[in-house]
Every structure is written in structure tokens, then in C-alpha cells.
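PROTEIN DATA CARD
Card holder: Methyltransferase domain-containing protein
Chain length: 234
Origin: Pomacea canaliculata
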Amino acid sequence: MTPVVNNDSQENYEYDWGRIRYNCKNKRGMGNWHVCFDDNLVPQNNCLVYSFGINYDFRFDDAMAAIGCTVYSFDPSMLDTDDHKRGDRVFFKRIGISDKDDDHFVPRVDWYVQRRPAVNGWPMRRLQTILDLLGHRKEQLTVLKMDIEGYEWNVTRDLLDSAILSSVPQFLVEWHLFKDFPPRERVPDAVDTYFRLNEMGFQLFSTSHPRYYLYLATSLGMQAEVAYLNKKRN
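Structure generated from the sequence above:
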């Protein structure tokens, strides 16, 4: 079994996922993610963080709140968790990020969905819609984090096409490649989306080497957590 990408694309991904382009001098582990604190990238005041994909793990969110950031945590798969204020600075919303607004999105069946079937679908929104809903359209996002199990390709493409990502100083994302997802015909779009980030000025300052694993005991997957600094924005 091989990942969904062809050999040439796979090599390009593996090489680039391990290539640090920006040497962050003040990189800190915030829960289970790294954030760059160079040059007041994380201001003491007006620090706003959006964190998509929680799966009941708030380590990153709580760590960012502990240094004074206001954090919004999003996960539509946490069906037993209503919107609530988790702490003084952490707010949970049971909606997800997507490239389109959809009240009844039906996700592909993966390990998370198997445990928590999406009977009525999930409420999903584009980032600009969420910013409007929460009254943040005119505010500056400090960090945008996504761990959304393969849907990051479509979402990132939408963020690039709409230019909304160009104003975000730090973008943390876990890239996923599964044997059957993204669909094979969409792989060229995923490759293009990945390398467009470089063209937009996003430079890796932290990365985990790609990890291979058996997924649902039948498919081989590959994933890597990467953190980008927007050099054109800063």
C-alpha cells in the first residue's frame, strides 16, 4: 500500500515537510504545537487565536490562553460538547472550518467519525463567515491552527484564493495524506495548494518529520505537523 500521492509528489512532500526555512530564535512549545515569539509576533495585548480540531485535547488552547491570548476552539465532531466558555480566555464552538458554509456536512468515515457518527451532519463554515459570526472581522488573528484530518487541503486553498490567509502571521497545520483521501483526482490541487504557501511568503519554522501509520488497519497514511511564519505579513 502507498499513500495517495505518486512517487515524485511523495518525495517532494517528504523533502519539504522536513525543510526549515525560517530560524525562529524564540520558538516555544505551547502544549502540543510550536509557536514563534520573535519580534512581538505574539503580542501581550489583543492576541487572538483560532484553533480548529480539538478532539478533547485543549493543551495548545490552554497554553495560549495562559500567556494572555483569547482562544476560540472549534470541533464539530465533539457531539457531546455544547458551546461553552472553558476558562477565562478559552471559548469552545461546536462548528468546523470548511471551504463552504454547510449546516449538514457529512464527513468521510474515519476513526473519529466511527466513534462519533455524524447522524445529522456537522455545521461547517468558511473562516470569513466565522470571523463575522464572532465579530472578529476587523481584528487581527495572531495564530491560526488546523488539525482537521485531510480537509486542510480544501480549506487552505480557499484561504489562499480568498486572500484571507495573507493577513495571518502564524499558520499551524497538520498535513494528512491517506490512501483514499484526498481523492486521487484532487492530488494535483493539493500539491499546488501546498507549494502556493511558499509563494505567499509562508516559511516553515517548525516541523515534525512525516509519520507513516496504518489507518483503520487497512490504509497507509502520512502526516506531519508544520508551523509557518508569514514573512510577507511581518
